[in-house]
Amino acid sequence: MVALAATSLATTGASWAQSVYDYRKSQTLLVSPEGDILDYIPETGDVVISRDRMGRTVLIDRFGNLVATEIPAESYYPPQNAGRHRDLPGVYDPYRNDPPPQPRGWDDDVTTASIPDALPGDGQPFDGSPSDMPYGGPDMAPPTDNAPARTVTPEIPVKSNLSRLEITALQVFLDREGVSPGVIDGKMGQNVNKAIVAWQTMTGETLDPNNAEDILERLRLSGGLAINSYTITAGDAAGPYVASIPEDYAHKAQLPAMAYTSTAEMLAEKFHMDEGYLRELNPGVDFSIPGTIIKVIEPGPPKTGSVTRIVADKALKQVFAYGADGNLVAAYPASIGSTDTPSPSGTVTIERIALNPGYTYNPKVNFQQGANDKILQIPPGPNGPVGTVWLALSKPTYGIHGTPEPSKIGRTQSHGCIRLTNWDATELAKMVKPGVTVEFVD
């Protein structure tokens, strides 16, 4: 471990430290593990100055917890003409103006006999993720320059040395680039790994998942900080919401809508986040109170373009969207079929596109759900069996659609359809037209 004496702060003096870490003037900043600029100078004796694996100066408290990391100011703030700061110190808002709404021009409702999502508890367990790299101890020495480069392949999960916030930055960068990592949760896993490979295919560049400095610079150029502030509005708090989503389809059919169950669930989906991670970033916050300022992910505007061909890779559990020139436009983690209810093979086409679709359950066509033996009309909503989007395929009962459980995308199986997160399915829906081919590959 490369450590400096804790008395360094005392030697330099509080006034010097205040000037060095004044976020308005300094060339370097102290940033907390939550991504905020430290608005105070730790007192002498309360912290030890050390180095992390990336060779950066870090402040550690007496219990071994990370207090702050010293980073260059230019890697935290984007150029002034790229946006402006919000009221909270150190928080950057690159998207002051929302993009103009696009005309829908699609069916507001759809009645399908699609094969629905996997039942609760069905499928495979989540990917394992390494815990955050600890600060302190003999493994704190900076990495050597001759360390072997890590080759990223879809089959081998990356063992990242990044902190959780740095992994968040990587996920946000990939999301902004149109290669979705699925829900953003600050953890490495196969969805992130597959997105890295897709990005390298799309751009022809190499992205080192352990190079935090490069990732943060790319993030800055793509629109600014990964974590932003957001003020909960009266509309956010009002909903409408439902108390809970029942498992039985007959009970689902009795609801006025398959709506979100809470403001937190709605906000998590709005900002492409895992709901648990949203709550971790905002401990103790009551999301139902308008005017509350919270920390959220800044995914940026959705990818745009024209998609003329889609490839659904069953083995990778990933969907690739290509333009007329053959170049990759976007990529998404997906749940595609299962051994018992496999997805089709060969090539089909998109026949219909619908936002906010309703769902018709027909036990003679669908699988048997509970004791239901009658046709049921389940209302629209993000927690419906097909989420917020339905792209009907030319093979009857199959489609590309959203999901009420975004954290399970790419980690569980479906009942034959292609299942994406609601936001990824919506992004894809706005780039396709009826007639676009969908090729299933093994």
Automatic annotation (TrEMBL):
Transmembrane regions listed in the UniProt entry: none
InterPro entries xrefs: LD-transpeptidase, LD_TPept_cat_dom, PGBD-like_sf, Transpep_catalytic_dom
L,D-TPase catalytic domain sequence ranges: 308-441
Keyword list, A-Z: Cell shape, Cell wall biogenesis/degradation, Peptidoglycan synthesis, Transferase
PROSITE patterns: LD_TPASE (PS52029)
Active site: 401 (proton donor/acceptor), 417 (nucleophile)
Pathway: Cell wall biogenesis; peptidoglycan biosynthesis
Disordered as annotated region, ranges: 76-143
PANTHER family on file: BLR4375 PROTEIN, L,D-TRANSPEPTIDASE
Family statement drawn from the similarity comment of this UniProt entry: Belongs to the YkuD family.
Protein name in UniProt: L,D-TPase catalytic domain-containing protein
Organism, as annotated: Rhizobium wuzhouense
